[in-house]
Amino acid sequence: MSLRDLMPFGGRELSRATDPFSSLQREINRAFDDLWRGAPTPATRAAIGWSPSVDVKEEKDRLVVHADLPGVSEKDVSLQLDGDVLSIRGERRTEKEEKGEGGAWHVAERSYGVFSRAFTLPFVPPVGGVEAEFKNGVLTVTIRKPPQSEPANKSIPIKAG
């Protein structure tokens, strides 16, 4: 057995075009390029508007929704319940200060505009079962669960005849 027999690809010199590892590396690079191209940048976020971050927590007898609304006044937010759909809508208004001779922005990443979020709840809340509080830029919505009813599907005993 010669040393040439132990070398990958029979000891042949491979060009970058025929090297399978180069091809694999190109595909991996292309996948990461596509991934980064799809990631939102501050410019794309500003172009498409913004949407508040929301946490939804289920507890024993209620759901609690926390929505981060920095820079939004409670008078610019509306909350609506339509059956089992909870909707949060509002607007974050721009804060333009044009004093003196103007000036030039060096970085502008904050987004402004109208936003809307809607959530389908796993139940229809009872009448008067939704409360909302707005404090320090966080909207907290507490939704009581309806009283538990007996399950519709029960085991039915069969009598011997």
Measured as a percent range, the helix fraction is 10-25%
CATH class of the largest domain: Mainly Beta
What proportion of the residues form beta strands (DSSP E)? Answer: 25-35%
Unreliable parts: none
Structural class from helices and strands?
alpha+beta
Named CATH topology of the largest domain: Immunoglobulin-like
**Can you give the mean pLDDT?**
79
Distance between the termini: 86 Å
Question: What is the succession of H and E elements?
Answer: HHHEEEEEEE
Named CATH architecture of the largest domain: Sandwich
Shape: flat
Notes on the structure:
The protein has about 160 residues and is an alpha+beta fold. The protein folds into two domains: about 5-35, no CATH class; about 50-95 and about 110-145, Immunoglobulin-like (Sandwich). It is about 20% helix and about 30% strand. The chain contains three helices and seven strands; from the N terminus they run H-H-H-E-E-E-E-E-E-E. It has helices at about 5, 20-40, 40-50, and strands spanning about 55-60, 60-70, 75-80, 85-90, 115-120, 130-135, 140-145. The strands form two sheets. It has a four-stranded antiparallel sheet with strand order 1-2-7-6, with no helix packed on it. The protein has a three-stranded antiparallel sheet with strand order 3-4-5, with no helix packed on it. The mean pLDDT is about 80.
